[in-house]
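step 3/5: co-fold with Broken Fe4S4 cluster
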Amino acid sequence: MSSRWEYLKYRLPTKQVSITPGVSELLDKAEEEGIKTAWHRYLEQQPQCGFGLLGICCRNCNMGPCRIDPTGYGPTRGVCGATADTIVARNLLRMIAAGAAAHSDHARDIVKVVRLVAEGKTKAYKITDQEKLKWLASALGVPVEDRSEEEIAKDVIEILEREFGKQDEEPLALVKALVPAKRMRVWAKLGVVPRNIDREICECMHRTHIGVDADPVSLLLHGVRTSLADGWSGSMMATLLSDILFGTPKPLKTTMNLGVLKEDMVNIIVHGHNPVLSMKIVEAAMSDEMQKLAEEYGAKGVNVAGMCCTGNEVLMRLGVPIAGNMLMQELAIITGAVEAIIVDYQCVMPALVDVASCYHTKVITTEPKMKIPGATHIEFEPEHADEIAKKIVRIAIENYPNRSKARVYIPKHKMEIMAGFSVEAILEALGGSLDPLINALRDGTIKGIVGIVGCVNPKVKHNYSHVTLTKKLIEKDILVVGTGCWAIAAGIHGLLSPEAAKLAGPGLRKICEALGIPPCLHMGSCVDCSRILIALKALAESLDVDISDLPAAGSAPEWMSEKATSIGTYFLASGVFTHLGTIPPVLGSPKVTKLLTEDIEDAIGGKFYVEPDPEKAAETIINVIMEKRRKLGWPL
Ligand code: SF4
Ligand code: MSK
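step 4/5: write tokens
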């Protein structure tokens, strides 16, 4: 055995880890070159800690760490007396807090940019969607008549800044403005109407401190409240303000998969979540100045491709192709053809630096709150966005001559896709009104709607559950909408093209063919799950029912991030039956498991359903949708 294989420790059954074309070829290349990926490191972690998997370890104070013996023979309480129920609920609450914090801090960064625009302190950004600004202003009670965009934006931003810091007990302004009355009544009864984003997150940390909240019900209800602050305010704000700054997405065509990288061009990957940086990088890279510079360095130009959700942001608005979803970030570097991977935050593996060190690729971090040892750090400041973006693109171009042509291998696979389905774009495709969709739902041409979101995870076959579940649902005339890494999986596997209508049942197929749209609609990045909430709100209000009555469901078939925990919880809390395809760390408490998967439904209208097998999950989701239709008196 060569030392290379010893270093790798485990070789992967590369054909079995993913269904996505190009992945096994690049994993073979990685192994040939002695490079580890997330899949290798996942094997090295085996067996993963059983206490961690069950959620029954606690290290919230230094009397611990404590762990509960699930067999009951060992300790049943931590040193302080915390039970498995308390520990599991506390751990879950901390996951929700982290997820809500990530989305909402992303929103805060965009709020800052809109304030700069409103105050005329930057020329790098502008209000692009004036209509949306006015719509948001009106929803928040800000006068719009005879006022400049800047004046309106300033008032809007003042209200949105208070979402993070107001001290009263009133609901968040966006919650008050957007949540349907029937849903608000459910939350008010349970005492979970969110008041302040930072406060709910802070309270999660307080409640889970040694010697504070030990009641799993009370802990979980606060988890619900925190997730709602994320979904209906933090993430919502990130989406609305990104649309206002960069434009509300409209349908467009582009391509996805590693084959979007170009052998004869400077390849730049933008990775992370926030469009404030990636939109500027794309703009700089596409400028004549940078394209010419690339030619001077011997390339045919500069090619930008996206990764994860910042990729989704630039795809939705500019049609920038996407190289892959979360587990494909290392593979992009392993092609040997990437000059720079430019990252903002979230879902960026620190391992990128190790992989990049085997090639010429530069990993460029840009955010003060997101640094990786060994990466090049160039701090991004929105006030000087254009200069900084150019500086970063220039570094990538100057790196092109360092590429070792002999080590380049770009799989040829790529797929045509149609994306850009904001709620506004869906409405426009329907002729300006929801009525055709409502009629199709009522008469059973379309049986229901499922939002599929979330990550990919080496614990399960990459993209398999996303694709299998999606196909099974559209086959049964269920329209699938979604975001994040699901959207990239769906795109790579041909489900985001209008031709995919032929995979749908007869009703959905007829509608997609008439409108020229795919049966699966890409609605954006992780924060854009808020678009799904808006769509549900619009449907529920038009039908005068609660969201929980709609023939709708949610799913995160391959989730892994804490953000996905928050998204799943706010879907559930918004009244949606929510499937999880990887098992959350709650099984160590049968009580918490039952609360989340059974009891909570009576109180809130939604619940979690955990099923790793996507075919079985599809069956259950279809049954749930049919049951909702039956209750509405709609044909099955
Ligand atoms: Fe142990 Fe309680 Fe401290 Fe947790 S909070 S580490 S269960 S003593
Ligand atoms: S990028 S949070 S892996 S969806 Fe939004 Fe994908 Fe999940 Fe990150």
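step 5/5: annotate
The chain has three domains: 84-246, 258-407, 422-632.
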